[in-house]
Amino acid sequence: MSSFKQKLLNAPYAFWSFVFVAIPLLMVVYYTFTDKGGAFTFENLKILLDKKYISVFAYSIWYAFLATVICLVIAYPLSYIISKMKSVFQDTLMVLIMLPMWINLLIVTFSWKEILSNNGIINSLFEAIGIGKVEMLGTSFAVVLGMVYCFLPFMILPILSSMQKLDKSLIEASEDLGATKINVIKRVIVPLTLPGVISGITMVFVPSISTFYISQKLGNGMIILIGDLIERQFSVSANYNVGAAISLVMMILILISVAVMNRFADDNDKGGA
Amino acid sequence: MKILGKIFMVLSFIFLYAPLIVMVVFSFNSTRSTSVMKGLSFEWYKNLFANEQIMNALSNTLTLAILSSVIAVVLGTVATVGLYYLKNKLLKRSLNALTNIPMMNPDIVTGFSMMLLFTFIAGIIGAKSALGFHTMLIAHITFSLPYVILNIKPSLDSTDIFLQDAARDLGCNRLQAFFKVILPSIRSGIISGFIMAFTLSLDDFVITYFTAGTDFQTLPLYIYSMKRGIKPNIYALYSIIFISVLVLLFLSNYFKSKSIKQKKKEILL
After folding, report:
1. Contact B85/A24, CB-based, under 8 Å?
2. Residue of B nearest to A6 (CA)
3. What is the ipTM of this complex?
4. pLDDT per residue over B214-251, tens digit each?
5. What structural domains does chain A harbor?
6. What is the rounded CA–CA span in Å between residue B193 and residue A270?
């Protein structure tokens, strides 16, 4: 195909993704370093050095990290158990894992709000046993639980698929060579399923750190995350410049955190080998 | 150990389904409450179909999803084929990088950054309001495109490119060869790309929130706007969706395993 025709075929998409993907990101940078009049400034970033903002950033990273670890702790053994079952059961369970993803996150978050509320199911149960009411909404527990719930399937699916692809003969071979059960897991299964774990980590951490409706609904306004800060600059104060600065900082924080977590996962792998 | 594993699995699935069960149960509540069950009734299902605002939001959501996924599939198919034939390494690499950005970036950044662009343009041309149906449509096409490309690319990669040459030798022109040979062989990728784009668009709240005007309300926007809490009629709507998806998924799973069994039989015979 002639080079002109190649370019012609690529032109629409190249144009589209340049205008609606690349330029918006440049806009974030532009808005970060300008004031409302369009003059160059560092003010938008300087504001973020305030204690108030720093603590929001730190807590967001911490909660997202917790949610990611909890998802991993649930998803890894669960995928292991499922991958050992008969393939008919595996298919059925896969469907059951994907099904909740079809229900809008706003709905399930609201549903959790009802479950955790003061006259919700859990508290009625607590009252019946005699523990008494425990205020759960508005706590970090509720927010992290919401994150874990909403993004758990995104951790299970990549890990499960890497477990299913795992060559069973490798496990048999290592058992034949005298490896104990723990050693098989540590030296064969974990290293070979690491790609699934790493993509799961990113797929849980990124939406967790940037959410705002989970913290709004389950945090009752008591818990503020980076996403809330951006959302408020958009809907309440209409200060797009500060909003852009927060977005830029968040993107950088995500890049660093994901790199650190992947490094950690890699190191674990080396430690096991 | 085995029993412990089973208990763990059951607990995990209870966790995954707890809010969905609450949703379905309270959709049958006879009062407005979504926390106290007073009695069973179909009232909210009747109410749902009589509620003009919800029905309007539902039809808006479907309109947006169909329009955006059709455009994304057409644009994405051309893009995937274009990228496949592209020889310029630098251009190819940068286009692939641009494709990955909307998938890697948090939704809130995608939405916020597009909103900045639309506001900026509106400021230049002096438009009254920056956001509306057109900006939502652009946003939905943009975040669906990478997933469409991702779905089509594997089936294009596994297509025999010499088939096209054969078609050319037999007298097809380029366009005919594309429509008669390439398109049929990437059909399954196009269909799965379309389904993915459609469901992503139906479900999206965050990016829509930042790019929506006041004149066009989708279902997730409507739900978010209910500050005092969701009424059981919304639960009823999503219970219907839940049950339909459940049936569809199991049916497709059943037919898939059936066809696999058939293939195995054919191979054995």
Report:
1. no
2. B86
3. 0.89
4. 889 999 999 999 877 788 999 999 999 999 988 988 88
5. 61-272 (1.10.3720.10)
6. 38
